[in-house]
Amino acid sequence: MECLSEARLFGGWQRQYRHASSSCHCDMTFSVYLPPQADERPVASAWWLSGLTCTDENFSHKAGAQRSAAERGIALIIPDTSPRGEGVPDDPDDAWDFGLGAGFYLNATEPPWTRHYQMYDYVTEELPALVARHLPLTERRSIFGHSMGGHGALICALRNPGRYQSVSAFAPIVAPSEVPWGQKAFRNYLGDDPQRWKEWDATHWLSAQPEAYRNLPIRIDQGLEDLFLAEQLQPSRLVSIAEQATLPLTYHEHPGYDHSYWFISSFIEAHVHFHADHLTER
Question: Which residue in the list 23, 50, 60, 147 is annotated as catalytic?
């Protein structure tokens, strides 16, 4: 890990790192906030997955999560949203909702995306192993995200029962196999078979094996002025499944709020405390 930058913040350290990724076959950057408690002992971590067009810096600079993380003594780990660099393919039409900045946190199976777009393996296996070797972290972790990253957080937690102590999302794409953003990405990354798309769809996992998530606290926050709510997000699909199966999902609607980081920064403190409560050793 090469440290690219660092700054003192609320008694801890905000850092950005670069490393060569064996999953994505390119250099990857990620950001970390280490709270002041990490100077004395290993700390638990909350992993943030950002949305379309973002890098690891959007959340670090705009969300304002570090103050609460310092208060509760948890680290924030913030991966990039896709592979990048020379030789990494992008959308041929330069669209913003596919390719660079839009990895959808899955493992691509279709050329030319297969070699580099292995973001699921990167987020769930490679990067956790890397930071465990270099940073003072315990094995306890939670995961959260926004929009495409909300989809990513949900799919990482649902595909790995027991690995994360909790999961939350702001305005997540909960049923990507049923909405335009997800269908475009899945068709390119995974091929034309919709059955293969379900393996990366949170509503599929939650409905297929609800008993596996009895002990997984889930929180979703949604702004009601979000322009993408009806067509792309549709959180009610996941909420309905959770209610029918009596799973521990709490859903919060916020009148007047949109899809932006203004929305995220307004409620990020509640999410940090939500995860910190579940990350505390019992």
Answer: 147
Give me the CATH number covering residue 39. Answer: 3.40.50.1820
121 is catalytic: no
pLDDT in tens, 167-218: 999 999 999 999 999 999 999 999 999 999 999 999 999 999 999 999 999 9
Q: Which of 60, 142, 226, 278 is catalytic?
A: 226
Instruction: Tell me the three-class secondary structure of 155-224, residue by residue.
Output: HHHHCCCCCCCCEEEECCCCCHHHCHHHHHHHHHHHCCCHHHHHHHCHHHHHHHCHHHHCCCCEEEEEEC
Annotated active-site residue in 116, 146, 204, 259: 259
Q: Is 259 a catalytic residue?
A: yes
- Specify whether 207 is catalytic: no
Strand partners, 45: 75, 141
| pTM for this prediction | 0.96
Instruction: Classify residue 105 by burial, with Cβ atoms within 10 Å: 0-12, 13-18, 19+.
Output: buried
Domain span at residue 102 reads 2-279
